[in-house]
């Protein structure tokens, strides 16, 4: 064989074989196919940096994966069939760091998170909510679900140690707006929000997004910054947790509460100086990591305590429940170039996750329609909490409309679809009859409207002919067949395919020519 794999015409001469040592050259891995590289590159740009294998963040980016209790795909990677029963992620453990292994925390505090801003930023998007930064209407007091009130079982005084009272384990956190503070409790236990970690995630997000580099220095200073003080107190609480104590010792609670008070005071001064709202006026794009944090807060408070209601479904019918997770929603809506002056519709919106994300992340008018009673109940709860959460953060969103009923019959949804720019339908478990009914419904869409689906509405290799000239599918054109990977849908951790289809009535006319 020669170097290029062909046979050589030179015969070997019989001779003694001399053995010599030579370095082993390993073969470089073959490059990935172009289409796979493209898909993975899109995935990389649509998500934020993940934490290191040790579980400690290597940057100032909050690690939200462990604190997200929304419906999650099963861990079993070998499953290939669609899972119809939602799986709930177990309550996360506290960080295992202690003061002696805090170098990674130092590294985290030194650097501000840098998230790539899309090249097509919507400059028309206005992020600041004027109402959120004013106290004229209600002095910043409004209905919301505090983290301290989210336990599945009401907290009893008997769960608190003799040396600690309810006041001892309660801490109040200030947000960037002029709104009320949120109450957290610092008890450990199942079915509780990880209050300590969420507080640190919020503080990091505020420093990264609402402040300039100079303004953020007191928050991110690696030895004595406000976030570093929170991390040190967190590490001491984690050691207390490892010793098996349900309620932290008062001295440790006081350390964390003191760190929160310092953070609150610094943030309040910036707010009174109008620094936060002025900085927000200069921005037009929310980082995806912040979007995930806010959506997770809403879900954990409004849905997670009652998530068992979603287990009631009709197996094999059109009402099997499953959720698209924020990562995939971000990916597909970004690819449709959704803008704040456009209209989005989610057909079969479940508890409203996608409709809320579209309104928050893209600022668009957002509609959803769902017919399952329990899902509608939770969707209404999410919408209320979503409004409260966005006010806490000072963020203006697109208007959200959630309709109850059959999207094939709901007249308000039909009227909205006629002016919609993007429509999403999770038709993974829909019957062929329902998919065909949707194709008929799409006849009334305006040209250029984009339809996102998990199953195609246009059959593969479909060709317009004289025989099928009147088929409604001839008005649709598939513009993309993309791939999604783990953490994209609630029913599986396997890869899958999605489709973006565009209403294009000219396609049929061109085929006739």
UniProtKB/TrEMBL annotation:
<keyword id="KW-0156">Chromatin regulator</keyword>
<dbReference type="GO" id="GO:0140956">
    <property type="term" value="F:histone H3K79 trimethyltransferase activity"/>
</dbReference>
<feature type="binding site">
    <location>
        <begin position="321"/>
        <end position="324"/>
    </location>
    <ligand>
        <name>S-adenosyl-L-methionine</name>
    </ligand>
</feature>
<keyword id="KW-0539">Nucleus</keyword>
<dbReference type="GO" id="GO:0032259">
    <property type="term" value="P:methylation"/>
</dbReference>
<dbReference type="GO" id="GO:0031509">
    <property type="term" value="P:subtelomeric heterochromatin formation"/>
</dbReference>
<dbReference type="Pfam" id="PF08123">
    <property type="entry name" value="DOT1"/>
</dbReference>
<feature type="compositionally biased region" description="Acidic residues">
    <location>
        <begin position="95"/>
        <end position="106"/>
    </location>
</feature>
<dbReference type="InterPro" id="IPR021162">
    <property type="entry name" value="Dot1"/>
</dbReference>
<comment type="similarity">
    <text>Belongs to the class I-like SAM-binding methyltransferase superfamily. DOT1 family.</text>
</comment>
<feature type="region of interest" description="Disordered">
    <location>
        <begin position="23"/>
        <end position="120"/>
    </location>
</feature>
<dbReference type="GO" id="GO:0000781">
    <property type="term" value="C:chromosome, telomeric region"/>
</dbReference>
<feature type="binding site">
    <location>
        <position position="370"/>
    </location>
    <ligand>
        <name>S-adenosyl-L-methionine</name>
    </ligand>
</feature>
<keyword id="KW-0677">Repeat</keyword>
<dbReference type="GO" id="GO:0006281">
    <property type="term" value="P:DNA repair"/>
</dbReference>
<keyword id="KW-0804">Transcription</keyword>
<dbReference type="GO" id="GO:0000077">
    <property type="term" value="P:DNA damage checkpoint signaling"/>
</dbReference>
<keyword id="KW-0808">Transferase</keyword>
<feature type="compositionally biased region" description="Polar residues">
    <location>
        <begin position="48"/>
        <end position="64"/>
    </location>
</feature>
<dbReference type="GO" id="GO:0005634">
    <property type="term" value="C:nucleus"/>
</dbReference>
<keyword id="KW-0175">Coiled coil</keyword>
<feature type="binding site">
    <location>
        <begin position="406"/>
        <end position="407"/>
    </location>
    <ligand>
        <name>S-adenosyl-L-methionine</name>
    </ligand>
</feature>
<comment type="function">
    <text>Histone methyltransferase that specifically trimethylates histone H3 to form H3K79me3. This methylation is required for telomere silencing and for the pachytene checkpoint during the meiotic cell cycle by allowing the recruitment of RAD9 to double strand breaks. Nucleosomes are preferred as substrate compared to free histone.</text>
</comment>
<keyword id="KW-0805">Transcription regulation</keyword>
<dbReference type="InterPro" id="IPR030445">
    <property type="entry name" value="H3-K79_meTrfase"/>
</dbReference>
<keyword id="KW-0489">Methyltransferase</keyword>
<dbReference type="InterPro" id="IPR029063">
    <property type="entry name" value="SAM-dependent_MTases_sf"/>
</dbReference>
<keyword id="KW-0949">S-adenosyl-L-methionine</keyword>
<dbReference type="InterPro" id="IPR025789">
    <property type="entry name" value="DOT1_dom"/>
</dbReference>
<feature type="domain" description="DOT1">
    <location>
        <begin position="169"/>
        <end position="513"/>
    </location>
</feature>
<dbReference type="GO" id="GO:0000786">
    <property type="term" value="C:nucleosome"/>
</dbReference>
<feature type="coiled-coil region">
    <location>
        <begin position="223"/>
        <end position="273"/>
    </location>
</feature>
<feature type="compositionally biased region" description="Polar residues">
    <location>
        <begin position="77"/>
        <end position="90"/>
    </location>
</feature>
<protein>
    <recommendedName>
        <fullName>Histone-lysine N-methyltransferase, H3 lysine-79 specific</fullName>
        <ecNumber>2.1.1.360</ecNumber>
    </recommendedName>
</protein>
<dbReference type="GO" id="GO:0042393">
    <property type="term" value="F:histone binding"/>
</dbReference>
<feature type="binding site">
    <location>
        <begin position="344"/>
        <end position="353"/>
    </location>
    <ligand>
        <name>S-adenosyl-L-methionine</name>
    </ligand>
</feature>
């Amino acid at each position: 064989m020669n170097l290029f794999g062909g046979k050589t015409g030179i015969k070997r001469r019989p001779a003694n074989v001399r053995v010599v040592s030579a370095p082993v050259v390993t073969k470089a891995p073959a490059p990935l196919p172009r289409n796979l590289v493209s898909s993975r590159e899109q995935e990389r740009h649509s998500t934020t940096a993940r934490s290191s294998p040790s579980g400690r963040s290597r940057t100032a980016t909050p690690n939200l994966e462990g604190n997200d209790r929304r419906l999650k795909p099963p861990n079993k990677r070998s499953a290939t069939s669609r899972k119809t029963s939602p799986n709930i992620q177990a309550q996360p453990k506290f960080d295992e760091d202690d003061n002696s292994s805090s170098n990674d925390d130092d590294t985290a505090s030194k650097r501000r998170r840098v998230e790539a801003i899309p090249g097509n930023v919507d400059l028309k998007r206005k992020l600041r909510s004027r109402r959120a930064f004013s106290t004229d209407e209600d002095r910043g007091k409004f209905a919301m679900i505090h983290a301290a009130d989210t336990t599945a079982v009401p907290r009893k005084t008997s769960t608190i140690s003799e040396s600690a009272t309810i006041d001892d384990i309660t801490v109040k956190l200030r947000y960037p707006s002029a709104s009320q503070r949120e109450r957290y409790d610092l008890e450990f236990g199942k079915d509780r929000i990880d209050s300590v970690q969420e507080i640190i995630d919020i503080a990091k997000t505020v420093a990264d997004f609402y402040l300039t580099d100079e303004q953020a220095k007191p928050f991110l200073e690696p030895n004595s910054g406000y976030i570093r003080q929170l991390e040190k107190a967190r590490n001491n609480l984690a050691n207390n947790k490892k010793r098996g104590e349900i309620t932290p010792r008062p001295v440790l609670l006081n350390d964390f509460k003191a760190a929160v008070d310092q953070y609150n005071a610094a943030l309040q001064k910036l707010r009174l100086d109008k620094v936060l709202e002025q900085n927000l006026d200069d921005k037009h794009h929310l980082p995806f990591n912040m979007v995930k944090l806010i959506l997770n807060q809403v879900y954990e408070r409004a849905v997670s305590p009652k998530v068992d209601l979603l287990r009631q479904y009709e197996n094999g019918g059109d009402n099997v429940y499953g959720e698209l997770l924020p990562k995939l929603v971000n990916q597909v809506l970004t690819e449709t170039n959704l803008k704040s002056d456009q209209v989005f519709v989610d057909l079969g919106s479940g508890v409203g996750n996608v409709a809320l994300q579209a309104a928050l992340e893209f600022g668009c008018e957002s509609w959803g329609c769902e017919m399952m009673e329990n899902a509608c109940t939770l969707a209404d709860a999410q919408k209320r909490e979503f409004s409260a959460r966005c006010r806490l953060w000072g963020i203006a969103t697109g208007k959200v409309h959630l309709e109850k009923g059959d999207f094939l019959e709901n007249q308000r949804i039909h009227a909205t679809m006629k002016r919609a720019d993007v429509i999403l339908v999770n038709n993974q478990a829909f019957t062929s009859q329902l998919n065909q009914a949707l194709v008929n419904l799409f006849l009334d869409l305006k040209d250029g409207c984009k339809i996102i689906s998990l199953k195609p509405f246009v059959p593969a290799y479909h060709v317009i002919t004289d025989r099928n000239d009147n088929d409604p599918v001839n008005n649709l054109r598939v513009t993309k067949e993309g791939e999604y990977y783990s953490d994209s849908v609630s029913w599986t951790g396997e890869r899958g395919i999605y489709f973006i289809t565009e209403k294009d009535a000219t396609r049929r006319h061109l085929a006739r020519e």
